[in-house]
Specification:
Layout lengths: L1 H5 L8 E7 L5 E7 L1 H10 L3 E4 L4 E4 L8 E8 L6 E7 L15 E4 L2 E4 L7 H4 L2
Parallel strand pairs: 1-6
Antiparallel strand pairs: 1-2, 3-4, 5-6, 7-8
């Protein structure tokens, strides 16, 4: 695929990927992709990431059921960041059971939790 040849992966073969709700514009999560993950994401029209800690592909929702359907894919001006505009199945993107991974807001040198847990992770990851 010619489009993949234009994307600039880092020296570890990875590229940052941001998942954004295609309707609201809310940033839901950040993860990494390698070339295979990006290729599979394009092919399957579902988000596939690369887990650096597990050193393997991570099909979003494979354990939780909270998959991400691709609506649009963008790269930034340098083509070294991917933006996925997605439909979040089940309304939960974060492994903590929240809609978004970005729920901790800095307020006067303290991190405040700004979003409630939708579903207890113990009930998601059995």
């Amino acid at each position: 695929m010619d489009a993949l040849k234009q994307v600039k992966f880092d020296d570890q073969g990875l590229i940052p990927a941001i998942a954004q709700d295609y309707q609201t514009g809310e940033i839901l999560m950040f993860a990494w992709m390698n070339q295979e993950a990006l290729s599979l994401t394009i092919e399957k029209q579902q988000a596939v990431y690369y887990s650096r800690s597990r050193k393997k592909l991570w099909f979003k929702g494979e354990e939780s059921g909270h998959s991400q359907l691709i609506k649009e894919i963008y790269s930034d001006c340098d083509q070294d960041v991917i933006l996925l505009k997605i439909e979040q199945i089940g309304g939960i993107a974060c492994h903590t059971g929240r809609a978004s991974c970005f729920f901790q807001k800095l307020d006067n040198d303290n991190w405040l939790t700004t979003a409630d847990v939708i579903k207890d992770p113990k009930d998601i990851y059995e």
